[in-house]
Amino acid sequence: MMPSRQTWFQLTGFAALYAFSCVVGRLTIMEGTNLSLVWPAAGVAAVWLWARHGSGRLWLDGTLLVAIAVVVNLATGAPAGTSVTFALANLVQAVIFTKLVARWRPALVSEERGCELVRTSELWILLGAGTLSTVCGAAIGPLGVWLSTGTYSWAATVVWLTRGGASVLVIGAVGLRLLYLHRCRRAGRASAAAHPGAVTGVDHRPPLLLAEYLGVLVCSVVAYWVAFALADALPLAFSLLAVTVWAALRLSTTFVVLHGLAAATVTVVFTVHGIGPFASIGDHTTGVLVAQLFVIMIAVVGLTLALGRDERTALIRELERGKVEAARQAELMSAIVHSMADGVSVIDEDGHVVLRNPAAEELLGGRVSPGDVTTDASYYGVFHLDGTPLVTEDLPHVRALAEDRALEMDVLVRNAGIPQGRLLHVSATVLAHGSDMRSAVLLFHDVTAERRQRDELASFAGVVAHDLLNPLATIEGWTEIAAQTIAEQPPDPVLDTISSSLTRVRRAGNRMRALINDLLAYATAREATLAPVVVDLGRVVADIATARVDAAVATKALIPTFHIGTLPSVEADPVLIRQLLDNIIGNAIKYSIPAVPPRITVECVRDGETVEISVVDNGIGIPPGQHEKIFGDFHRAHNGVDYSGTGLGLAICKRIAERHQGTVVA
C-alpha cells in the first residue's frame, strides 16, 4: 500500500529538517577527525521516529535517515566507511531511544494522548532513554573514526555522548511540545491551555502575562549579549540560569522549551566561533563540550521547574474539581436525606447530633435534642412496647455504640407532640470514621398503622379460632358417635361407604383443629404477657426429644435420633420458649427424606449475653429463595401432600423470638 499524501508531506518535512541539521553539525567537525562537535541531527532523528511511531513504515523512515546521513557525510569530506558507520549509529540511537520511551511510558508516543510531556517523571524517562540510546550510538559511531584513522579516540566517545545528550534533550523536548500542540489542534481539542502542562501561567491576567513574556525575552537577549559578547572573559555564564528559572516558574512549558532551544543555539554558536566564556576554557573542543553540558543543565533546570509547576497546577485544579464534586455530592445527599419519609439521625459517641432530617424530628413528636446533644430517654417519651419506660442505657444509639454492633428494635413514642403514641421501628448501625471516632446512624420507620393492622388481624384470627372450637367439637363428637354406631352394625356396602365418608370428615376436622390451634398459638405468641423465668434449655430440648421419639414409636414412624450439645439456662417465658423449640424440632422431623430416619443436632454458641441455638437436620432442606419467606404468615415452602401443615408454625417461632428480643433465621 502506497503512503498517503499526508505521510509523504511528513516524510519530506522531517527529511529536509534532518538534512539541514546534518549539514549544520558537519560544520563543526572535530580537528583531526571526521566527528562533529555539535550534532543537532540526533535530536531531529529522535523526534522523527517519535512522531512516526506506530506508522508501520519504520523501514522507510530508517532508509531515509541512513541515506540522508550518508549523503551529507560524503558531501562534507567523510570517507564512505565512516559515513555509513555514522549513519547507522544515528539510526540505532534514534530507534533505541523511541523503543525505550514507548516501553517505559507509552503515553509519550501515543497518538491518542498526543505525545504529552507534562510530568517530571516523564522528563527523567526522556533523560534515561536519551542517555542509554546515546551510549549505544557511542559504541558504534567512534568505530567509524577508528576505521578511518586506525586509532580509537576516547575524546571522540566523550564528544558523541555530550552532543547526543544535549541534542536529544533540547530538540526532543521542543519536538514533543510542538507535536503535542499539533495533535491537540488536529484532534479538535479546545485549547492546549486546558490540559495540564499546556500553555498556562500562574498569573491569569493576560495583559500582565504578556508583559512578563516580553520581559523574559528582553532580559534573556540582554543577559546573553552581555555574557557572550560584552564580557565574554568574565564567568557570567551560570548567572544566565536566573532567566531560565524566571521563565520556568512563571511562564508556559512550551515557552520554556523554546527558550531553552534559543539559549542552547546562542551558547553553542558563540562557543563554536570562539566567542563567549566557554571559548576560553582549555582548547576549542573542551570549550564546546562544556558549552553543551551547560545547555543540558539549562534544559534540565528549566524543564524540571516548569513540569513541577505544571504538576502542582494540575493537582490544584484536580483538588478544586474534587471539592466542587464533593460539594455537589454533599448537596445531593443532603437533599435526599431531607426528602426521605423515614427519619435519619447520626449521633456521635459524645451524644452530639451530627445530622437529623425533618422526618426524624416529626416522628419523634418535635422533640429536638436541646443544643443538639442527646439527653435522658424520658425527655423524648420513649417506651417499650409493653408500656414500660425505656432507660437511657437502652436507647438504640447508646446500645449500638456500647455493643459495637447493628441492632433493630421497636419502641413506643408518646409525648406532648404525639399524645396518642406512635410505634417506631428503629435501626441503629455503628459508623466508624477517622482513627478513633464512631457514630451511630439511626433510621426511624413509622410502623403504627402496619402493626395496628397486623394486631387487629391477629386478634381477629384468635377470636375466630376460639369461636370455631365449639362447633368443631360438636362435629367431631357426632362424627365419633356415628362411626361407633356404624361399627356395631352388620357388614353392609352402604354402611361401608358411609364409614369411609365419616373418615374423611374426621380427617378434615383434625386439619381444622390443627389450624385453629395454630391460630390460637399465633395470637398467644403475639398477645400473651411474658412471664420470664430461668429456663434450662438442655432439659427443655431433652423433654421435647423424648416426646418426639415416643410419638414415633406409637405411630410406627421412623424413629428420630438426637444429638444434643451443652445448652445453657436463659431467662425466658417457659411456655413460649418450649413452643418455639418444639415447632422447630417438629419441622426438622416432619420434613425428612422418605425412608431415611431423621437425625437432629441441637447445639449452642454463646457470645456474651447472646445465645445462639442451632437445629440441624438431614431432611429435604428449604427450596432456594424461600429462606426468608417461610417465616411469613400461612406460607408453606413444600405444598406436597406428604407434608401437611398450616404455614403458621415458623411465623409463631419468629414472633416468640422477637418478643424475647431475638431473631430466628433459616
UniProtKB/TrEMBL annotation:
The keyword Lipid biosynthesis does not apply. Keywords: ATP-binding, Kinase, Membrane, Nucleotide-binding, Phosphoprotein, Transferase, Transmembrane, Transmembrane helix, Two-component regulatory system. One of its GO terms (molecular function) is protein kinase activator activity. This is Sensor-like histidine kinase SenX3. InterPro entries: BphY/WalK/GraS-like (IPR050351), HATPase_C_sf (IPR036890), HATPase_dom (IPR003594), His_kinase_dom (IPR005467), HisK_dim/P_dom (IPR003661), HisK_dim/P_sf (IPR036097), PAS (IPR000014), PAS-like_dom_sf (IPR035965). PROSITE patterns: HIS_KIN, PAS. The chain crosses the membrane at residues 35-51, 58-78, 84-102, 123-146, 158-180, 208-227, 256-276, 288-307. Residues 329-365 form the PAS domain. Its EC number is 2.7.13.3. It comes from the Bacteria. GO terms for biological process: osmosensory signaling via phosphorelay pathway; regulation of DNA-templated transcription. Its main location: membrane. Residues 463-666 form the Histidine kinase domain. It catalyses: ATP + protein L-histidine = ADP + protein N-phospho-L-histidine. GO terms for cellular component: plasma membrane. It is found in: Cell membrane; Membrane. It is a multi-pass membrane protein. The keyword ATP-binding applies.
